[in-house]
Amino acid sequence: MNQTIKIVMISDTHNCHNALNIPDGDILIHAGDMTEYGTLAEIQDFDDWLGTLPHRHKLVIAGNHEVCVQENGGWFLFHNATYLEDEAITIEGIHFYGSPWQPAFFDMAFNLPRGEALAEKWQKIPANTDILITHTPPFQRLDQADAKRVGCKDLLQRVKEIKPKYHVFGHIHTSYGQLIYDETTFINACSVLELDLPLNPPIVIEWLK
Q1: What 3-state DSSP class applies to 18?
Q2: How far is CA 15 from CA 33, 46, 64, in A?
Q3: Helix (H, G, I), strand (E, B), or coil: what is residue 121?
Q4: CA Rg, the chain, in Å?
């Protein structure tokens, strides 16, 4: 008998997590930037909130705002979720991979220059990845900010090589939504557009086992 796994995706909540209406599901994914200032207190508040949610599995990566995570290690800071930093995990037969890096963006966390340094990170993504979680979008995939395409070209190349079923990310607040291209559904799950505006709803998918 087929089983449906409900996966809820959010990103870039920037301390607004308590204002979100999170649907029930089996797996919750947060694609980075849960804080605004990157402090330990913000991470603690977010982790406490995660503990109130009913999802059996919660996957979290960091974003460019999470300075304290880069300094202290997310494996030690999150108690109510599985933190992924260039790591794979298999849940309910689904292969996930999470990575926080993005092209250099001011003097913030998990920044690397475009080119070889980022390409080396993306080469770590396993070929059998079903759902890829990154903070940055790939180039030309829901990555438009101020009429510019700011995603990572090397990430796009790796996605084209391994063809995950889904690629979820955030970082670019103005490009929230979904896009199907070739064999991959790209999901920009940014919850916040601006801090004083209504939040985007979580994006939900159903995975048929």
Answers
A1: helix
A2: 9, 7, 14
A3: helix
A4: 16
Cα–Cα distance, 148 to 146 (Å, whole number): 5
Domain locations in the chain? 4-208
- Tell me the pLDDT tens digit for each residue of 78-103: 999 999 999 999 999 999 999 999 99
Question: Residue 76 corresponds to which tokens in the numbers above?
Answer: 């030690």
Q: What is the pLDDT of residues 146-190, one digit of tens each?
A: 889 999 999 999 999 999 999 999 999 999 999 999 999 999 999
Phi, psi of 185 (to 5 degrees): -95, 120
Contact of 103 with 152, CB cutoff 8 Å: yes
CA-to-CA dists, residue 195 to 32, 64, 147, 191, angstroms: 16, 17, 21, 10
Classify domain 4-208 by CATH number.
3.60.21.10
Phi, psi torsion values for 161, nearest 5 degrees: -75, -45
φ, ψ of residue 114 to 5 degrees: the values are -60, 145
Residues contacting 52, CB < 8 A, separation 6+: none
User: What is the pTM (predicted TM-score) of this model?
Assistant: 0.97
Q: Are 118 and 101 in contact (CB under 8 A)?
A: yes
How far is the C-alpha of 102 from the C-alpha of 76, rounded, in Å?
Answer: 22
> Where do the H-state alpha helices sit in 51-183?
67-72, 74-77, 116-122, 153-162
For residue 142, CA distances in Å to 89, 139, 178 come to: 25, 8, 8
